[in-house]
Specification:
By secondary structure, this protein is of the alpha/beta class. It has one domain: Rossmann fold (3-Layer(aba) Sandwich). About 35% of the residues lie in helices and about 20% in strands. β3, α3 and β4 form a beta-alpha-beta unit. The longest helix is centred in the first third of the chain and has 18 residues.
Length: about 290
Amino acid sequence: MKLYRNYSDQLAIDQAYNAVLSVESLQPYIDQDLALSTKCRDEYKPITGLPYGACSDQTVDIYPANRPNAPVMTFIHGGYWRSLSSKEFGFIAKGFLKLGFTVVLPNYSLCPKVSIEQITKQNRCFIKWLYHNIEKFSGDKEQLHLCGHSAGAQQVAMLTLTNWQDEFDLPSNIIKTVTAISGIFDLTPLRYSWLQADLQLTVQTVLSQSPQLLLEDNKFNTVMPPLLLSVGASESTEFIRQSQDYLSQWKNMGYHGELIIQQDKNHFTVLHQLYNECSDLCNEIRSFIQKTKY
């Protein structure tokens, strides 16, 4: 019996979706990210730990641009919805700061303490907070851009699929562009994976939190922003396929989207280019934003 596509057992699904299994050791990547993040915080002195919601996990770190009314780049971290925090990813701010953005890193609660539905609710509440507060931190609320990695890519995709006007009294075009890196957009296989013990996915959760499935019936009364997808060429075939399929569905719905496959990059190195404003990925994101302004 097939559990998902051509996968008939958990071992096969874990091999396809557990990115840790694709590298010799995860620790060197964690150590590098933490070192770069510490260096970035020491250099740019962000405003940290600002609350945006009632839960103690709902905090945000902000790296203000050196000029007022700068475009805003929000980065939502990954960790399979069950680990890590915004602190480990402070390094991504450097490249965007050099490009003139105010950079914002929200934190959120993790599974199994909360469900993925609740994580999505927290990040939607964060967007409302951001719109009403970012001008205090050199940001322009009319120029809000999103970037997310792994679970964060699923989250930024969910933020595009939000009825901002009716549910939050916000502009329907509040989000200007989205960059989703190494995302999982159909959560179906994760119900049969090692993650299920923490994620506790139900059929309803999969249906309500899978951007790939939600796109098939757009009832969000919102403006879909241009979407830039990116994935490492050294990631599993399933990670690459998920981005390719999501782009195909996105474009079939009539929305603008592009895909960048980063050569020689794996699930953990795809972000490192964001530390350098002159990198290929930073240049691609900057070019994408400039040519898709609306």
